[in-house]
Design goal:
- By secondary structure, the chain is α/β, with parallel strands linked by helices.
- The protein is built from ten helices and 13 strands.
- The protein has a seven-stranded mixed sheet with strand order 1-3-2-4-5-6-12, with helices on both faces. It has a six-stranded mixed sheet with strand order 8-7-9-10-11-13, sandwiched between helices.
- The termini are far apart.
């Protein structure tokens, strides 16, 4: 009865809160349902950084799949703040949503919030997308994400193609993030298999941000003047590295490989300033997450991890249709 009453309240929220048109101005939004209909289920989604293009695309995929199934989707932005994300989970619990999806900002600290959802009456199933929980607290039904080990291997293969079997490279890293750990693992495996004479002379934690990546890369270029390649663990890292390479007058002379293939990175690849990118499919991650939740609602036990393959984007990819 309590869940039913809460669902009525959520329906009212869905009717008065329009779907967001701008991620910069909206902190919370619900999918619109046809007039007079009640969504079959409600899914609360806390995205760690809703302003990022990747997460906007992932949200779009979720919305499309949720609309097809008649689910209400409540999306909030954690703004890279663990305390805020935990509070959002508590709010979802109070609203008695039917499922929760998280892209954790802090993979360790999020465990206590997941445990709260598990302990709700009735328990609320929790799913993670893109970034996993590494906490021993709480149970996650299923994690849906790019196959980041495979994606890192693809990025390493691109570096090998660019350099051949010699030269020194750097990694612009963010080692506390689980998905990045997998990327770097796959990247190093590709080097070992495909260009073992290529050596990593620097691995810096730039926090996944463009400004710090630029500053750190400037330091790397000063310390290793013969650097031939750079792997940025996301496109902000790669584009930050590119800014430093440009400032040093080395654009096009240092092979830069990023991860995500954002429009800005694709433009740099088109100019020959970046060699290529591993490319994720965030909309597919989003739609698959809703599909996994639907299967769970139908009584099917989903696998603990659902991997979405990662591709590559190079100059040869220009003009091809986006997946």
């Amino acid at each position: 009865m309590k869940r039913a009453l809460a669902r009525v309240a959520l329906t009212l929220v869905g009717l008065i809160v329009p779907t967001a048109c701008s991620h910069a101005t909206s902190q919370s939004s619900a999918t619109a349902s046809p007039p007079g209909t009640v969504p079959k289920k409600y899914v609360g989604v806390s995205i760690q950084n809703r302003e990022a293009q990747f997460y906007q695309d992932m949200e779009s995929g979720m919305r499309s799949a949720a609309d097809k199934r008649g689910y209400g989707l409540i999306v909030v932005d954690a703004s890279r703040d663990n305390a805020k994300q935990q509070s959002q989970v508590e709010d979802f619990i109070s609203k008695r949503v039917d499922a929760i999806v998280l892209t954790p900002y802090d993979s360790q600290a999020i465990g206590s919030a997941i445990a709260e959802a598990n302990a709700a009456h009735p328990p609320i199933p929790v799913f993670t997308a893109d970034i996993a929980s590494t906490s021993s607290q709480g149970h996650v039904v299923s994690h849906i994400a790019s196959d980041n080990v495979q994606g890192g291997f693809e990025a390493g293969t691109l570096i090998c193609q660019a350099l051949g079997n010699s030269g020194s490279i750097a990694i612009v890293d963010e080692p506390e993030v689980t998905s990045v750990q997998d990327r770097v693992k796959g990247f190093k495996a590709a080097l070992a298999q495909r260009c073992p004479a290529v050596t990593i002379v620097a691995d810096v934690d730039s926090g996944g941000t463009r400004d710090k990546a630029s500053s750190d890369t400037g330091d790397i270029l000063q310390a290793h003047r013969d650097i031939k390649g750079i792997f940025g663990i996301n496109d902000d890292s790669a584009l930050g590295a590119l800014a430093a390479v440009r400032a040093a007058g080395l654009a096009g002379k240092v092979a830069i490989v990023g991860y995500d293939a954002t429009p800005e990175a694709r433009a740099a690849i088109a100019k020959g300033e970046m060699y290529g990118d591993a490319i994720q499919y965030p909309a597919k991650i989003g739609s698959t997450t809703i599909d996994v939740i639907a299967n769970y609602f139908a009584g099917k036990k989903p696998p603990p991890i659902v991997k979405i393959p990662v591709g590559t984007f190079t100059k040869a990819s220009l003009g091809q249709a986006s997946p």
